[in-house]
Every structure is written in C-alpha cells, then in structure tokens.
Amino acid sequence: MTKEKVELYRYTHRIEEEKVQAFKEAIYLNDSNSEIPATYATVIDFQGGMSFEKLTDLLTFDPSCVLHGSQQYEYRKPIYIGDNIEAVVFLIGKTTKKGMTFAKLETEYNRDGETVLVSRSTVIEQKGVTHV
Amino acid sequence: MFNPIHMTITREQIKKYAVASGDFNPIHTDPEAAKKAGLPECIAHGMLIMALGSRTLNEWGVSSLASYDARFLAMTYPDEPLVFRGEWIDEKLGKGKLTVENEAGEVKMKGTFIAG
Question: How confident is the model at residue A3 (pLDDT cuts 50, 70, 90)?
Fold first, then answer.
C-alpha cells in the first residue's frame, strides 16, 4: 500500500472555446458562459496529457477493466476560456483488496501559480467486473 | 426538494461525450471491450452522469459551486430511464444533495454540493 503523496504526472492545457462548446453540446448545456462547466476538468485531464492509456500505464492498471469510483471537485476560482492551466497529479494511495485495486488521485489545477481547482478521485481496477 | 428531472442517455450521447471529453476507456464505446470486462454491454461514463448532474443543478438554479462530489454506485446503461433528484441539506449554508437512479430505484450516483 502506498501512503505518501507522490507526484505522478503534470501537464498543461489551454482552455479552448470549441472544446468547451463540444463538451456543453455533449451534455445538452445551453449557455454562453465563458466559465468552464463544473466537470470540465475531465477534458483538461484527458486532452491535456492524462489520456486513458497514460492513466492506466502510470497506475499499472489493466486498461480492460478500469472503473471510476468517486469524484470530488473543490472550486477555488472560476476557470475561463483562454486560461492556461497546469495540472499536477498526485497519487495519494493505492490499496488492493478482494481482487480490486483502488487508486486515490489528487489533481491540483494551477493558473499563474495559483491553485484554482482541486480534484480528488478514486479509480478502480476490477477484473471481470459485474458492478461498480 | 427540487423538481425531479427525467433523462435517458443514448449510445450516441455516450459516444459524443467520449469524443468531447477525450475519455476513450473502451468499456464505454466498444461492446466487445465491455463484454471482456464482464459487462453485458457498454456503460455510460460516470463522469457523464456527474456532468448531467451539474447541468441539473443549473436548472434548479444552483449556478455556481464551491464543491461538487459524486460516488458512482451502479452501472448506467444506454436507454435506461433515469431520474435526477435533489434537495437542500442546509439551504442557509448552500449545502445540498443529488441522487441519480433508474425507474426501479437502483441508485447510480450519489452526490453532494455546496453552492458558492
């Protein structure tokens, strides 16, 4: 079991209008707000460098049976189209029980050196999954 | 108590969300990969349910958030009718909860939020 907070990966991502629009369309959100939607950090992750393959590689998880157990966001400052965000991902803990491995991740999203958003998530590797 | 909102997620919407988010975990879009993982078919992204939950919060008038947490408790399948229910835990503090379940009452997601 890993207990200490270990930096896993960092990447930068620029918030682009057309990607924000595509995300809004995918969730049928109609607004002209320049602030990103509440769960848009998932785009910063997957398109900024922490792709699904990268994530499973870093966690040494079998990519064929990975589930998302929980997600938390702490919003400190609004993030807008045009912002450049640096994301720093930490592995907080990794535990295996009953054939399931739970990885706890914390990601800090920084703009100009200031943390504007914090994400905490649990990702699960479960062989032959039948339920979450 | 907020007005419950009914929604159904289609396969097309799951694909659209995969492209928009960049989350290409194959259990969401590839039926063979889903079967290999022991699932009867592709499942919706937990993050899609959470994103739709945030849209629901907007519709309930909660437009700005200080925090938003979700636990994904059961698989959500395409074309499964869902109901999003929410209520204040403490309106003065802006603290509320949100639950997503199917028509049979199976809870898919339990969330809490603090308006801010």
Answer: low
**B 10-29 residues with CB < 8 A to A:** 13, 16-17, 19-27
Whether residue A65 lies within 8 A of chain B, CB to CB, comes out as yes
pLDDT in tens, A63-79: 888 889 999 999 999 99
Going along chain A from its start, the domains and CATH numbers come out as 6-126 (3.10.129.10)
User: Of A37, A52, A128, which is closest to B51 when you measure between CB atoms?
Assistant: A37
Query: How is chain B split into domains, by residue range?
Result: 5-115
Q: How confident is the model at residue A2 (pLDDT cuts 50, 70, 90)?
A: low
Tokens 């499942």 found at? B43
Show Cβ contacts of residue B90 under 8 Å, excluding neighbours closer than 6 positions.
Answer: none
The Cα–Cα gap between B86 and A27 comes to 18
For residue B92 the two structure tokens come to: 């003065």
Rounded CA separation A58/A60 (Å): 6
Q: Which two tokens stand for residue A65?
A: 């049976």
CATH number of B5-115: 3.10.129.10
Report residue A131: phi and psi, to 5°: -155, 165
